[in-house]
């Protein structure tokens, strides 16, 4: 995880990963992710390729909003060499389906830097709709950056068959389409 998240090309596209990555930060985040998963208040997943299950290529998750609320905020990152192949879109669709299929949360929220078109497209392909623009803290850039905000409600998700099909496949133990593991 440290290897992937410490790359400047990866960190600069995230809202919360600092660059350079402080020693031990990846381990601290793993511990927080495990605690969130264990409590049932978050879902954090590692992304690997089926043919290389021990090699982490990305992360994604849904966790509590700052200030509470009924929804979860999604976040994700992917190793640069695996970007542009639809892997994160596939993983995000499965995450959305899992959250809405197995939890009581009714809304997912996401944000993407206005210059990070690929990130916004991941959310849009998973069914999220644009809701506005905010200035968001970006530790890798040591500043605030303009971000598009997006959200997806349970009702909107239910109306989209690809997302429902993905969660049904996961629930049946078939894994994700295309043979990738999340």
> What is the overall shape?
globular
**Helical element count?**
7
The rounded Rg comes to: 15 Å
- Strand percentage lies at 25-35%
Distance between the termini: 14 Å
Identify low-pLDDT runs: none
Mean pLDDT: 82
Strand order of the largest sheet: 1-2-3-4-6-5
Q: Oligomeric status of the shown chains? A: single chain
How does this model look, in words?
- The structure is a single chain.
- The protein is of the alpha+beta class.
- It contains 7 helices and 6 strands.
- The protein has helices at 2-5, 8-11, 25-39, 87-102, 117-125, 154-158, 161-171; strands at 43-49, 52-64, 71-78, 107-113, 129-138, 143-153.
- A 6-stranded mixed beta sheet has the order 1-2-3-4-6-5.
- Helix 4 (87-102) crosses helix 7.
- The longest helix has 16 residues, at 87-102.
- The model has no long low-confidence stretch (mean pLDDT 82).
Protein traits:
six-stranded mixed beta sheet, 31% strand, alpha+beta, 6 strands, 35% helix, 182 residues
Can you give me a brief rundown of this structure?
35% of the residues lie in helices and 31% in strands. It is an alpha+beta fold. The protein is globular, with a radius of gyration of 15 Å.
Topology:
Blueprint lengths: L1 H4 L2 H4 L13 H15 L3 E7 L2 E13 L6 E8 L8 H16 L4 E7 L3 H9 L3 E10 L4 E11 H5 L2 H11 L11
Parallel strand pairs: 3-4
Antiparallel strand pairs: 1-2, 2-3, 4-6, 5-6
Helix pairs in contact: 4-5, 4-7
């Amino acid at each position: 995880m440290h290897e992937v998240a410490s790359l400047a090309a990866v960190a600069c596209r995230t809202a919360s990963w600092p660059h350079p990555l402080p020693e031990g930060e990846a381990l601290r985040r793993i511990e927080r992710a495990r605690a969130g998963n264990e409590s049932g208040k978050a879902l954090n997943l590692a992304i690997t390729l089926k043919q290389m299950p021990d090699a982490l290529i990305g992360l994604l998750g849904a966790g509590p909003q700052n200030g509470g609320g009924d929804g979860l905020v999604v976040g994700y990152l992917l190793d640069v060499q695996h970007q542009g192949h639809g892997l994160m879109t596939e993983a995000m669709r499965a995450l959305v389906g899992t959250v809405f299929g197995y939890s009581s949360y009714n809304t997912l929220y996401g944000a993407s830097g206005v210059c990070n078109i690929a990130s916004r497209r991941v959310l849009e392909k998973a069914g999220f709709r644009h809701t506005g623009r905010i200035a968001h803290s970006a530790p890798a850039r040591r500043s605030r950056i303009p971000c598009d905000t997006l959200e997806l409600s349970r009702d909107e998700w239910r109306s989209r068959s690809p997302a429902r099909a993905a969660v049904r496949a996961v629930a049946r133990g078939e894994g994700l389409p295309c043979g990738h593991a999340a």
